[in-house]
Amino acid sequence: MSLPRLASSLAQSWERFREYHRTVAELNALDDRALADLDIGRHEIRRVAREALN
Protein backbone atom coordinates (compact mmCIF):
# COMPACT_ATOMS: atom_id res chain seq x y z
CA MET A 1 0.00 0.00 0.00
CA SER A 2 1.38 3.39 -0.93
CA LEU A 3 1.97 6.01 1.72
CA PRO A 4 -0.77 8.38 0.47
CA ARG A 5 -3.31 5.52 0.42
CA LEU A 6 -2.25 4.47 3.91
CA ALA A 7 -2.59 8.04 5.18
CA SER A 8 -6.03 8.33 3.58
CA SER A 9 -7.14 5.02 5.08
CA LEU A 10 -5.92 6.04 8.53
CA ALA A 11 -7.70 9.40 8.25
CA GLN A 12 -10.96 7.68 7.28
CA SER A 13 -10.64 5.21 10.15
CA TRP A 14 -9.94 8.01 12.60
CA GLU A 15 -13.01 9.96 11.42
CA ARG A 16 -15.22 6.87 11.75
CA PHE A 17 -13.83 6.30 15.27
CA ARG A 18 -14.62 9.90 16.23
CA GLU A 19 -18.11 9.76 14.70
CA TYR A 20 -18.90 6.52 16.57
CA HIS A 21 -17.84 8.01 19.91
CA ARG A 22 -19.68 11.28 19.20
CA THR A 23 -22.87 9.32 18.45
CA VAL A 24 -22.51 7.19 21.59
CA ALA A 25 -21.98 10.33 23.70
CA GLU A 26 -25.01 12.08 22.19
CA LEU A 27 -27.27 9.07 22.72
CA ASN A 28 -25.97 8.56 26.27
CA ALA A 29 -26.83 12.19 27.02
CA LEU A 30 -30.50 11.53 26.28
CA ASP A 31 -32.79 10.49 29.09
CA ASP A 32 -34.61 7.15 28.99
CA ARG A 33 -37.84 8.78 27.79
CA ALA A 34 -36.14 10.38 24.79
CA LEU A 35 -34.42 7.08 23.95
CA ALA A 36 -37.77 5.29 24.20
CA ASP A 37 -39.27 7.86 21.80
CA LEU A 38 -36.53 6.86 19.36
CA ASP A 39 -37.26 3.18 20.09
CA ILE A 40 -33.73 2.67 21.43
CA GLY A 41 -32.93 0.91 24.68
CA ARG A 42 -29.94 2.17 26.64
CA HIS A 43 -28.33 -1.26 26.13
CA GLU A 44 -28.58 -0.78 22.34
CA ILE A 45 -26.69 2.52 22.08
CA ARG A 46 -23.38 1.04 20.92
CA ARG A 47 -25.07 -1.14 18.31
CA VAL A 48 -27.08 1.79 16.99
CA ALA A 49 -23.93 3.92 16.79
CA ARG A 50 -22.09 1.18 14.88
CA GLU A 51 -24.99 0.76 12.45
CA ALA A 52 -25.17 4.52 11.90
CA LEU A 53 -21.68 4.37 10.38
CA ASN A 54 -22.83 2.04 7.60
Characterise this structure.
- The chain has 54 residues and is an all-alpha fold.
- The chain has one domain (3-52).
- Helix content is 76%, strand content 0%.
- It has three helices and no strands.
- The chain has helices spanning 3-29, 32-37, 45-52.
- Helix 1 packs antiparallel against helix 3.
- The longest helix is centred in the first third of the chain and has 27 residues, at 3-29.
What's this, in brief?
By secondary structure, the protein is mainly α.
Characteristics:
single chain; 0% strand; mainly alpha; 54 residues; elongated
Write the SSE topology.
Elements: H1 3-29, H2 32-37, H3 45-52
Structural Rg: 15 Å
What does the overall shape look like?
Answer: elongated
Record field, number of beta strands: 0
Helix count? 3
Terminal residue distance: 24 Å
Order of helices and strands: HHH
Helicity level: over 70%
